[in-house]
Amino acid sequence: MPDYGRPLRFGVFPTPEAGKLDEVLALARVADEEDLEYVGIQDHPYQRRFLDTWMLMATVLAKTERVSVFPDVANLPLRPPAVLAKSAASLDVLSDGRFELGLGTGSFWEAVEAMGGPRRSPGEAVDALVEAIEVIRLMWSDQRSVRFDGRYYRLDGVKPGPSPVHPIGIWLGVGGRRTLALVGRTADGWVPSSGWATPDRLPDMQARIDEAAVAAGRDPAVIARIYNVWGAIDGTGGFLQGGIAQWVAELTELAVEHGMDTFMFGPSEDPVPQLQRFAAEVAPAVREQVTRHRRG
């Protein structure tokens, strides 16, 4: 699997528990102050212990100055894409360009349905995602009014706006054959998680993205590869469970052999001190190792 040569990025993937708000905001401050690039927040509106992701993202952006924020990833069945596009553009304007859009097909269909959302088959969920991307981009366009007539979503002369202040990336948190091809054809990034997109699965998944990108006339290197990883520094052993040297070696391998360029850390214990060590000791060393590798 090639190294696409993209700049390395690092961030934190906090769990948006209402009862741990102080901890979540502390993690965002560490990311902002210690030169990490992103805060990614999962979106499960039906989870009673979780804060609303969009309200939390707005709060994080208001309390930080430099770090960018994105939903990791937005729950499309419960977020109509035209409204989602306006929310994303609004956060981008309010934060002076510090917002990206992670987007998924949806899951946990019983919970989605219990909250009033649609239950979709796997094929329907993919088709709806394809339509949603078109709707979102129309809503970010500079056209006076836009129309779209799809099976799942419609626009009937709506006037787009406000415009984002920077080109917001659409990053897809997907893993199926059709959706990986969709990443390659049209998305700006891919957001898998190490729990289901394990390192041994990455080569085949990356290849599907790259084949679709080339077939669509795109350079695969324009697609960001964002990897959600869980673990503990100085943990009990196993993947991303060892000391600093192990973390540096494994993340470096993921970058130079598996093509991942952004690492979103979900600490499995002691989140704030773990993130501080990640920012101070792991991320700089990985950058150094990858730079050395690229220079040959």
UniProtKB/TrEMBL annotation:
Pfam families: Bac_luciferase. InterPro entries: Luciferase-like_dom, Luciferase-like_sf, SsuD_RutA_monooxygenase. Residues 15-226 form the Luciferase-like domain. The keyword rRNA-binding does not apply. Keywords: Flavoprotein, FMN, Monooxygenase, Oxidoreductase. CDD domains: Tetrahydromethanopterin_reductase. This is LLM class flavin-dependent oxidoreductase.
